């Protein structure tokens, strides 16, 4: 049985891998991981089972991204608006990083993955932030894939915070209005250490950004799929990257 699976898997890999060009791999891929609840509902299961299975898709996406040669993978895990959900669901979601890291951290360390996060950590439960901090500390010297979790992240708030910082600096006389360039703004966002995403993926059929990286996605290629996040596999990432490689990015110029 295992042999049958292995030969099928090898065949699958042969079918999908060669279609990607090594020269044009997106450096930064960002994913809005959506549809966990609907995936569960469709099976008559509670929403949290969808989140649990979504966690397995996170692992698949990270391993596949690493394999393809993607350098930065940002995953939208919890938005500043997701606090509006029932407390039970929020509590469950806040336990997931610990659970994910307890199971996967050692393998991610072996794969040289560096874990980071963006968002507002000070509002997260202590146990959630403790798990994230430990993972960031233990992987901070790793030089492979940067796996960046957007956790309690909201783009308007991030931009608003940068505005406030500029206003304070100008009021204090430490910053001139001319200093507030696009570079300055980029450097004062949570993603300041990362390049802008080359490719944005959203699952679940929704065609919106839901307050995700509004500044940074200005010239990203967008790829939407109807599948729900728990169904996301390496193949979907390949499909998205293959589509990315067929696109011409013009940035307003001519190709
Ligand atoms: C994405 O799945 C996970 C989070 C937003 C935390 P959802 O929970 O939004 O699932 P749907 O969109 O309700 O199906
Ligand atoms: C976006 O999904 C947030 C995350 C994936 C973490 P939502 O499910 O919260 O987005 P809306 O409410 O459908 O726009
Ligand atoms: Mg959703």
UniProtKB/TrEMBL annotation:
Function (record text): Catalyzes the condensation of isopentenyl diphosphate (IPP) with allylic pyrophosphates generating different type of terpenoids.
Pfam families: Prenyltransf (PF01255)
NCBIfam families xrefs: PRK14830.1, uppS
Lineage: Bacteria, Bacillati, Bacillota, Bacilli, Bacillales
Binding site for substrate: 35-39, 47, 51, 79-81, 83, 85, 202, 208-210
Chain positions recorded as Mg(2+) binding sites: 34, 221
Leading EC class: transferase
EC number: 2.5.1.-
Family named by the database record: Belongs to the UPP synthase family.
Keywords of this entry: Magnesium, Metal-binding, Transferase
CDD domains cross-referenced by the UniProt entry: Cis_IPPS (cd00475)
Subunit comment: Homodimer.
InterPro entries, alphabetized: UPP_synth-like, UPP_synth-like_CS, UPP_synth-like_sf
GO terms (BP aspect): polyprenol biosynthetic process
The keyword Metal-binding belongs to this UniProt entry's keyword annotation: yes
Cofactor: how and how many bound: Binds 2 magnesium ions per subunit.
Cofactor(s) essential for the protein: Mg(2+)
GO molecular function: ditrans,polycis-undecaprenyl-diphosphate synthase [(2E,6E)-farnesyl-diphosphate specific] activity; magnesium ion binding; manganese ion binding
The protein's name: Isoprenyl transferase
GO cellular component: cytosol
Organism: Paenibacillus zeisoli
Active-site residues annotated for this sequence: 34, 82
């Amino acid at each position: 049985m295992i042999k049958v699976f292995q030969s099928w898997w090898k065949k699958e890999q042969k079918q999908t891998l060669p279609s990607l060009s090594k020269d044009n791999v997106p450096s930064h891929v960002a994913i809005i991981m959506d549809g966990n609840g609907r995936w569960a509902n469709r099976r008559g299961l509670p929403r949290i089972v969808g989140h649990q299975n979504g966690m397995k898709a996170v692992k698949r996406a990270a391993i596949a991204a690493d394999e393809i040669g993607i350098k930065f993978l940002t995953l939208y895990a919890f938005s500043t608006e997701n606090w509006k959900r029932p407390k039970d669901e929020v509590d469950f979601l806040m336990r997931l990083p610990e659970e994910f890291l307890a199971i996967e951290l050692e393998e991610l360390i072996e794969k040289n993955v560096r874990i980071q996060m963006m968002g507002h950590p000070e509002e997260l439960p202590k146990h959630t932030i403790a798990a994230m901090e430990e993972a960031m500390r233990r992987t901070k010297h790793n030089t492979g894939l940067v796996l960046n979790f957007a956790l309690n992240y909201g783009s308007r708030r991030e931009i608003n915070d940068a505005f406030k910082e500029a206003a304070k600096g100008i009021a204090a006389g430490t910053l001139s209005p001319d200093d507030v360039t696009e570079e300055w703004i980029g450097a004062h966002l949570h993603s300041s250490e990362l390049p802008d995403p080359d490719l944005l993926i959203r699952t679940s059929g929704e065609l919106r950004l839901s307050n995700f990286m509004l500044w940074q996605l200005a010239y990203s290629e967008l790829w939407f799929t109807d599948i729900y996040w728990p169904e996301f596999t390496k193949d979907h990432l390949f499909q998205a990257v293959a589509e990315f490689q067929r696109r011409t990015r013009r940035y307003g110029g001519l190709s």
